[in-house]
Amino acid sequence: MKKHAMKKKRKRSCCDSQISDLKTLFPLLLASFSNQPQTTLPFLNKCLSKFRNSPLLSKSSVTPILALLPTLLSSTHSKIAIRAANIIGAASLVSLEINEEIATDSETVKGLISLLENSDRDVVFSACNAVLDLSITAFAQQQLLNFEALHRLMFVFLQIFKRLESVCLWCEGNERFHSLKIGFREDELSMALLSAITVLINACDLKQLHNIPRSLSEAILRLLKEIRANASHDLLIKGTLKSNDEVRVCKSHIGVSDLAESIFRLSIYASQLTVSLPFEVVQRGLFGTSDTSFEDFMSNYWEVSPFLLTRTLDDLKVNDLFNPFIQSLKWNGSVPSLLHSTLQGLVSCFPIASEEQNILNFLNEVKDRLGCPIIYEQDIRIVKTESQSEKETHYFQDFRPDCLKEPLCLTTEDVLKCEQAYKEGYTVALRGLEFRYQSIAAIADALALMFGQPSVGANLYLTPPTSQGLARHFDDHCVFVCQIFGSKKWTVYSRPGQLLPRLYDNLCSSDVDCTKVARSEFFLREGDVLYIPRGFPHEAYTNYGVDDGSPGFSLHLTLSIEVEPPFEWEGVVHFALRCWSEKWKRPCCDAINSLSQKLVLVSVNLLHVAIGIISTSDPSFRKACLTAADSLPLDVNNRLTQNQRKFFLDLIDKICNECKFSEVLSNVEAAIQKNKDPFEQIRWLWVLSMEKEVNKGYTDRSFIIENLRSLCAEHKDKLEAAFLKVKSRFCGEVVFEDIVTSHRMLLQKYKRTRRQYINGMISLHDKL
C-alpha cells in the first residue's frame, strides 16, 4: 500500500509539473476538450485553477486562452463555469489592454452575462465578481451595457435580495461621509450584485437610462431607496458598524454617494414624481377666490407693489394649498419635534447652473458628494438680527466661509444644536424645499408655468417669539410669503429706484437708506399670503400679545419667482435678434471671411451690446417676460398674449430709435481697454449659439473682437452703415409670434434639466 501511494504521489507531481508553465496550459486545455468531459473534468479544473492563480499573467499568456472562454462559460459543470468567470476577473485586472481585449469579444461578454441567471448561487457570485472586475474601464462598462448586463443584474437582484435588515454601513479610517461604504451582514451575493448594478447605472448615458424597461427601473429604484434609508437609519440611530462586531460583514466598495447617484439617475426617467397643480388651485391659494384674481394681480401688483391676501378660516377649509405639506411636517404642537422631524435625514442640494442642458454634467461635478448631509449656508442658516442692527448673527460662530477648507456639513449633533439655537432667539432658515417635498415641488412647478419662468424656489423660516431672523434686505427675485403656523409682522419699504434688480446682481442692501422712503406694515396670520416684488427692502419679526391668541412663533414659506436672464425682456430681445440673425446668416455662412460677412457678423454683435446699454437705464427691459406662460385658461392667455405683444413692439421701437453706433462703439472700446468682456451680459446666449452653430466664427468672442478692431481701423464708415442696416432690418422684420414659439421651446430646454434635478433630489429625500 505504501509503495502504491508513493507511485500515486509521483504521478500527481508529474501532472503538476506539466501545468506549471503557462505556455503549456493552452494545448493541455485544448486536448482536454477533445476527450470525454467526465474523464477530463478534474484535469481541466486543475488547469484553470493554475491559470487563475498564476502571478505570471501577461498578454502573451492570456490571449490564447481567451479563445476558449466562450466554451468554458457555457459549460454545464458549475466548477468549470466558475473557473472561467474567475479567469475573466483576474485577467481583466492585469492590464487595460487585456481588459479591452476581453470586453471586445462579444461572445465572451455574452457568455459571462448568461451566467448571471444560473441556478447555482456560486456561479452567479463568480460571474458578478467578474463583471465588477471587468468594469474597471469605461470601455468595458459600455460593452456590458450594450449587451444588457445591467438588466440581467437588476432582475437577479430583485429575485435574490430579501433582507433589508442585512444592510449596514462600514467606513475606511474615519466616519466622514466620503468614507462611508455599503455593507451586507453575511450576504456576499447581494453585496456583489448591488455593487455591479451601482457601477453600471452610474456609467449609463441618458439614452441608456431611458432604455431600461420602466417596470424594472422603478422596481430597482424602490429597492435602492429602501436600502439607502435602512443604511442611513443604521448610521443615525446605531452609529456606523457598532452592531457589526457580532456578525460577519461583507464590505463593498460602493460609497453612500455612489448609491445616491444611482437613485438620482434612475429617478430622471421614472414616472414623474412631481405633478403640477391645476391653475385654479394655485390661483385660489395665492391670489384669491375671484375668477379674475390672477389678472387683477398681474395688472396692479406684479413687479410694481406689495400685495396682501388675507385668508379666513372658511377660505382655508375650501382650499388649503399647503395642507399636504403641513401634514408631511407631522406637527404636534412641539417646535423641537418639528425641527427634528424636518431637519433629520435631509441631504444637501448642490446648485446647478440655470443654463445646464445635460444633467450628467451636474452629476460629474458633485461626484462623491451627492447625498451628503445638509451644508451650512448652502442649505441652511441659523441667524438672528438684534434690534436696530443691520447685520445678522450666525449661531455657528465658527462658520467663516473664507476660512473653511471644506463645507460645514450638519451632523446629528448639529441638528440638536439647532433646537438650542431656536430657544436662544435664532431663526432656522432652510433652503430648497422644492427639492425636498413633492407637495412643494408641485406648487413651485405650477407657479413657474403660470409666469413662464424656468423655476420657482421655496424656503422655510422658523422664527421664535419676539425675534427677527434676517436683517433688512431686498431680493433679486419676487417673493410670495405664505404663513403656515403662527404670525409675523412685516415692514416693506418702497423701492429706492426704478430699476428692478437682476438675478445674480450684487445686492448692496446695506447701502439703502430706508429712513427717507415710504413704508407699509403687514401682519400675517396663518393662511395669509404677502407678495413682495424684487427690489423692495423688507424685514420681519415676531412678537407676543397678538389679539387672536395665536402663538408668538412663526413658520412661513417663501415662494421665489427667479427671472433668469433669457426670460426678462432684455433677454427676449437678445434671443429674438439671435433667431432673426440666424436666418440672415445661414445662406452665406461659408463666406465668413469676406468683408461683407464680417461687417454683418460684427454689426449683429454690436446690436446686442446696444440692447444691453439701453437696458441699463430703461426699467422696461428688466421686467419679466411672460410670453412662455403656460397652463393659463384660454381667455386669460389670450389677453396676456396681446399685452405682451404690445410691450414687445414698444421695446423694438426703442431699439430702433435709441441705439447709436457711436455710443455702442465707445462702450465696447472702453470694455476692451479695461480687459473686460463686452459680451459678458449675454454669456447664456453664446452657450445656446455654440450648441447650434457650425462655424465657430459666430461664437468665438475673441474672433469677433479681432474683426471689430480691424474693421474700425480700415472700414469704420462701412461698419456704421452695416450696423444701421442690421438694426433697421431686425426692427422691421422681427415677428412676435415667431419669437413666442421659439421662446417657449427655449423654456422647455431650461425646464427639462431642472425637472430631472428635482426628480432626483426628491427621490433622495424619499423614505428618509
Number of helices: 31
Which regions contain 5 or more consecutive residues with pLDDT less than 50? 1-20, 236-244, 693-697
Instruction: Compute the average pLDDT.
Output: 84
Taking all Cα atoms into account, the compactness measure Rg is 33 Å
Give me the side-by-side strand order of the main sheet: 4-12-9-14-8-7-5-6
Total number of beta strands? 14
User: Termini, distance in Å?
Assistant: 69 Å
Strand content: 5-15%
Largest sheet: 8 strands, antiparallel
Given helix and strand content, the structural type is alpha+beta
Shape: globular
Helix content: 40-55%
Can you lay out the helices and strands and say which pair or pack?
Blueprint: H1 2-18, H2 22-34, H3 37-53, H4 59-66, H5 69-73, H6 78-92, H7 96-104, H8 106-114, H9 121-134, H10 138-146, H11 149-160, E1 167-171, E2 180-185, H12 188-201, H13 206-211, H14 214-238, E3 249-255, H15 256-268, H16 279-286, H17 293-300, E4 307-309, H18 313-318, H19 323-329, H20 335-343, H21 359-365, E5 380-384, E6 393-394, H22 412-423, E7 427-430, H23 438-451, E8 455-463, E9 478-486, E10 488-493, E11 519-524, E12 529-532, E13 538-541, E14 554-562, H24 569-585, H25 595-615, H26 634-658, H27 661-673, H28 683-692, H29 701-714, H30 716-733, H31 736-765
Antiparallel strand pairs: 1-2, 2-3, 4-12, 5-6, 5-7, 7-8, 8-14, 9-12, 9-14, 10-11, 10-13
Helix pairs in contact: 2-3, 3-6, 4-7, 6-9, 7-10, 9-12, 11-12, 11-14, 14-15, 15-31, 20-22, 24-25, 25-27, 25-29, 25-30, 29-30
Brief synopsis:
The radius of gyration is 33 Å and the shape is globular. Helix content is 53%, strand content 10%.
